């Protein structure tokens, strides 16, 4: 079921949009030099050309650890999430819509529009906490219709509200087929760099929770190199037993609160990260919590992300399975088919 459609399509023929109709935008960080003010070279490298991104309706960046540019919608008929011969329209930057897929809501956004939304929520000092998750087949398995974790998490409470973003080629295909709009795939690994760049500019305090301490060593180095002005409030590497223990998780949430974190990147894996955010997110004092799985591991270079050709053809799962067969075999070969059957049911 589709609802809450807001500016998903371009204006009707003959209609125009003035600059006043568009939401506020932001520019990359600048630094003084002997020649005046210039944009940080690293930020230009991360974010790429703003004019080209605006024309395409997406962000693109080329960080040193991920040389490929962000995936863009492939030409009609070449995109595995689009039927051959389709004429789907891209969403406007500030377009918003909600659809129900496999028993849970998916919130549809344009790429740079959601970066704006996350940045604005991170500095807002009132209203509910924003929790962000990714809707892929693993999410369908745990939180969709019949999922065992569904009763425990992903519920708007008034003090915490979920933004569940489109991820995973099968779900992208279902949503595009229903709406007739080329909604982009918004994987956490693609969003993390522009979100951190926005945080660097706006003075947003960012914390990282999850992963191994050895990964955090490399993550600190990468963050210091790529985001030298980013205020990092802390790194926390709890083990699973600590995360699953209510009292110890309360202590962990209080540590985050004392650090005055505005935006917390949570990488505990599904469904643990969503359940933890549901139960402890408001307690952390963070305004935004990102359930972004292995995104920080990708950023740190501890886990190699699938090359763009795999991501753009819907075969990222096969690449990751080949790289980590023991850890991911059950997820992709056992849970995956179950989730797919729920999705198409």
UniProtKB/TrEMBL annotation:
Span list, region Disordered: 1-89
Single GO MF annotation: hexosyltransferase activity
Alphabetically ordered keywords of this record: Glycosyltransferase, Transferase
Matching CDD domains: Glyco_transf_WecG_TagA (cd06533)
PANTHER family per record: PTHR34136, UDP-N-ACETYL-D-MANNOSAMINURONIC ACID TRANSFERASE
Name of the protein in question: Exopolysaccharide biosynthesis WecB/TagA/CpsF family protein
């Amino acid at each position: 079921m589709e609802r809450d459609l807001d500016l998903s399509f371009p204006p009707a023929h003959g209609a125009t949009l003035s600059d006043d109709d568009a939401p506020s935008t932001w520019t990359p960080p600048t630094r003084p030099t002997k020649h005046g003010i210039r944009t940080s070279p690293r930020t230009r490298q991360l974010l790429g050309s703003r004019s080209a991104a605006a024309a395409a309706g997406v962000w693109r960046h080329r960080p040193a650890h991920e040389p490929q540019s962000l995936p863009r919608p492939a030409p009609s008929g070449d995109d595995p999430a689009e039927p051959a011969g389709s004429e789907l329209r891209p969403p406007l930057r500030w377009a918003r819509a909600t659809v129900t897929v496999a028993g849970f809501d998916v919130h549809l956004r344009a790429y740079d529009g959601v970066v704006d939304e996350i940045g604005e929520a991170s500095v807002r000092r009132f209203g509910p906490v924003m929790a962000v998750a990714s809707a892929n087949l693993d999410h369908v398995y745990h939180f969709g219709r019949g999922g065992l974790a569904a009763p425990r998490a992903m519920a708007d409470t008034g003090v915490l509200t979920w933004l569940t973003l489109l991820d995973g080629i099968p779900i992208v295909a279902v949503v595009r087929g229903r709406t007739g709009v080329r909604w982009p795939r918004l994987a956490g690994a693609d969003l993390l760099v522009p979100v951190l760049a926005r945080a660097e500019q706006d003075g947003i305090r960012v914390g990282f929770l999850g992963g191994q301490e050895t990964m955090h060593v490399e993550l600190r180095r990468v963050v210091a190199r790529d985001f030298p002005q980013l205020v990092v409030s802390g790194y926390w590497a709890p083990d699973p037993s600590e995360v699953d223990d209510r009292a110890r998780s309360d202590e962990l949430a209080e540590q985050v609160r004392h650090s005055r974190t505005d935006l917390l990147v949570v990488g505990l894996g599904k469904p643990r990260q969503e359940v933890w955010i549901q139960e402890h997110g408001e307690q952390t004092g963070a305004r935004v919590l990102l359930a972004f799985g292995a995104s920080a591991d990708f950023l740190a270079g501890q886990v190699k992300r699938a090359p763009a050709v795999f991501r753009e053809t819907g075969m990222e799962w096969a690449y990751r399975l080949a790289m980590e067969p023991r850890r991911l075999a059950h997820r992709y070969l056992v849970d995956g088919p179950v989730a797919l059957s729920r999705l198409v049911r």
